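Q: I'm writing a short explainer about Tryptophan transporter for a general audience and would like to include a description of its predicted shape. Could you first generate the structure from this sequence?
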Amino acid sequence: MNTKSLVSMALLVGIGTVLHTIIPGIILDMKPDMMLTMMFLGIMLFPEKKNVLLLGALTGIISGLTTSFPGGLVPNIIDKLITSFIFFGLYILLSKKSFSVIKAIVFTVIGTIISGTVFLTSALLLVGLPGPFLVLYITVLVGALMNAVAMAILYPIVQTILRRTHVIKNA
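A: Of course. Here's the predicted structure. Afterward I'll give you a sentence or two in plain language.
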């Protein structure tokens, strides 16, 4: 883990924190998790186990601290750690050498749906839900759509910037 990678991941987490904080709760104080987009970007750009653990833990803690969901700290930590490693596994398994914006968008939608499912399930088991599971799951689907649009815009930009600054070589 070099300093350039750490700084880049910290910037992604910082941007994700701002996005997660300003997005309002949609249904029963559950909000689309834009921090996931930044976590997924970090995993795709720096695909190493230690980076995945760091990104999963950091985004889990920060999104838990900035959530509007009642009792959402622990479910957020569980969700991000599990989702980060599932996303990493899918990325390693299916990406091979070429990775396009379309793959990034599809992976983001899948990752967001996994994240929402893990979050709602862990919240249900640990603290209870403020409403019916299926009603809250609508927010997950809205979040998947928002994250897909964000990834379509951000992935090419971030990839170009990091390549030009020599943080990553083969983006």
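A: For your explainer, you could say: The first helix runs from residue 3 to 22.
Q: Perfect, that's easy to follow.
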